[in-house]
Amino acid sequence: EGGGGGRGGGGGGGAAAEGSGAAVPGGYDDTYAPPTLSGRELTFQTRVLNPYLVCTLCMGYFSDASTIIECLHTFCRRCILAHFRDSSHCPTCNANLEPNPRDYVRPCGRTLHTPTTRPRHAHDTPT
User: Fold this and answer.
1) Which domains, and CATH codes, for the chain?
2) 105, β-bridge pairs
3) Long-range contact list for 37-43, CB < 8 A, 24+ apart?
4) How far apart are CA 111 and CA 117, in angstroms?
5) What gap in Å lies between CA 56 and CA 49, rounded to an integer?
6) What is the pLDDT of residues 64-119, one digit of tens each?
């Protein structure tokens, strides 16, 4: 299940191209592995999710993720508020958010802190 790897959302390492199958110094193999389903558990490489977890302004994982309610694009709160000092438009789709773009920003409610193992639920325990 691994992959994710650092800020920037690339998920790969070294000079090997995505899916090239080339081993990178340090033992990382960037070969793509398709998702597998075992019972009710889906296992996949975390880098598949990176495009949905990375702020396009700072290229890091979301920190205090906030969404523009007009167009539903999401950014780090600090990044989008800094962007609004110079612009009244969404940096992704250029939606006009005048006169006060800050009024269109809402916290996502749930943010990524640290990837953890899958949570255990009552129905997962043997009876």
Assistant:
1) 1-10+24-47 (no CATH), 55-107 (3.30.40.10)
2) 68
3) 41/118, 43/1
4) 16
5) 14
6) 999 999 999 999 999 999 999 999 999 999 999 999 999 999 998 754 554 444 44
Nearest 5 degrees, angle CA 37-CA 42-CA 44?
105
For 38-60, what is each residue's pLDDT tens digit?
999 988 887 888 888 999 999 99
Please list the helix, strand and coil fractions of the chain in percent, rounded to the nearest 5, in that order: 15, 20, 65
Output the pTM of the full model: 0.57
User: Does residue 92 contact residue 56 with C-beta atoms inside 8 Å?
Assistant: yes
Dihedral angle, C-alpha 60, 62, 63, 66, nearest 10 ° = 140
Report residue 71 as tokens: 């167009």
In which residue are the tokens 């800020």 written?
7
CA-nearest of 91, 39, 37, 99 to 68 is 91
* Angle, CA 106 vertex, CA 105 and CA 111 arms, to 5°: 125
Backbone angles phi, psi at 54, to 5 degrees: -110, 130
